[in-house]
Amino acid sequence: MGEQKRKEVGSENKGEFIFGKRNYKFMFIGLAIIVLGFILMSGGGSDDPNVFSEAIFSWRRIRLAPALVLIGFGFQIYAILTRKEDSDPK
Fold first, then answer.
1. What are the distances in angstroms from CA 47 to CA 2, 7, 54, 57?
2. pLDDT tens readout for residues 51-80
3. How distant, in Å, are the alpha carbons of 3, 29, 52 from that of 61?
4. pLDDT at 88
5. Domain range summary for the chain, segments of one domain joined by +
6. Gyration radius (Cα) of the chain, Å
7. What global pTM score does this model have?
8. Do the beta carbons of residue 43 and residue 55 sit within 8 Å?
9. Could you confirm whether the keyword Membrane appears in this record (predicted)?
């Protein structure tokens, strides 16, 4: 009896994604925003170790890039917590 129930539950979800199309769209948008934030954070170093470069403390690297990364993580959390839209309501 217990084995029969397990087989029935496992077989009905076969071939179905965990998240819906909308969720994956938000995940990819969030991932793109996170990658953009890390790209904006990069650079600003100096070729000569004896010369200090002030570019490392630019507004883009200190404020904008971390904010974009946090916004991207917010999109990821929203994508995970949003319910999947069923195309076939029961």
1. 67, 63, 13, 16
2. 888 888 899 999 999 999 999 999 999 999
3. 57, 21, 16
4. 55
5. 17-81
6. 22
7. 0.74
8. yes
9. yes
